[in-house]
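User: Assemble these into one structure.

Assistant: Restating your components, then the assembled model:
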Amino acid sequence: MTRKETTLDTTSTRLETILAARLSARKSRSQLRSLTDFPTRNADFSSNAYLSLSLIPEIRRAYLSCLEAHASLLSPSPPLLGSGGSRLLDGNSQFIQVLEKNIAAFHSAPSGLIFNSGFDANVGLFSCIPQAGDIIVYDELIHASVHDGMKLSRASQKLPFKHNSVIGEPPASGTTKGLDAVLLELSNGEAGREVRDGRINVFIAIEGVYSMDGDVAPLKEIISSVKHRLPRGNGYIIIDEAHSTGIFGKQGRGLVCELGVEDDMFLRLHTFGKAMSSSGAIILCSSTIREYLINYARTLIYTTAMPFSCLANIKVAYDYLAGGQVDALLHHLYNLVRHAHNLLVAICSRYQVSPKVLSVDQHPPKSPIIPVFTPDPRSLAQYCQERGFTVRPIVAPTVPRGKERIRVCIHAGNTTAEVEALSQVIEDWVQRKHSGNKEPVKVRERERL
Ligand SMILES: Cc1ncc(COP(=O)(O)O)c(C=O)c1O
């Protein structure tokens, strides 16, 4: 063994010891992450593919024909395999530019720019758009990618506001304030004069639907607060529609289009990895912002562009939405959501379940995400998984301590029978808990009544 190799080995062993210690600390806090793989025959109550587009034969056929037609071209652009480089070099094509134009038109936006992922898009835009001295005000539950983008940003202040709270009760001291109070403080604070006269830009970062609770941003209230507190037009709302794309608005155009507030948004992000059953994302914005991003967003400039297979996937998903059939899927989806919620609420009331075992919000869900709270989410999730239903436990720090849950996510591809069977399994688990973890009693309460 050479001297150099010895040094390298020692270094790597020492580093690995440190990293392994960090992993075991994480494990002792029950926070160790790992990659899991469930049998595909399990009913999906977990993925973000809300519309189950990948199961629709018409879309699968359209996707394969799109690939075949492209493969039959003599010199296809982009190439059939790979993309050849960054968008700024050889990775650009007429195909992606036309796709961007069509998607922007579908969402009633002036223009759009496709990124390889929603994560890249958020990091790219938050790291380059706010200028030195600008301020970012963000919902405290904003996605990790926005946090990473903000870390790279030159903004002078990054201030959280209480989740989905605009004007509300004044918070207890030391806790996070609502958006309106944060904006008011900004205009009275140190940089108040520049905020008031519009010299400092204030970016407001929100999501349409929040993925853990499935709740929807009070967008109209947010818009009025921003207009009221920043009347010089220096309040710029950036909305991440990752979880509202495809499932809100006519033909799935999203929350902003549903409310008709396109002109009040500075920038919108639609991701394709969730309801659209594809991958990648588009930033909808003005043509100036698009050009600025092409010049400054490092997550666009320094990465290989998406291959044709992904672009074709996005195109067929949007063609399907634009074709109008999705409205029937949405109707079925929201019927299932209501049914699942009613069944879960009924379990809680039938057994007078203590929140120490299980609880569900009494209000009907506004999205396909239904959090089912329990202090023992791992046990409940495993119970469901072993009986053929994929649901995930969500624990701290992903959600606050005391708000542990399983995240039940309903899909257009789920059936009423699946929803009822899952609810029965959850009911069995509750009964086991009530009877001290013994096997569920054979004659169920509901059948006896
Ligand atoms: C709100 C939100 N924004 C952005 C992203 C990132 O999108 P992508 O998966 O396309 O990277 C996600 C995905 O987890 C998300 O939930």
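The first helix runs from residue 3 to 28.
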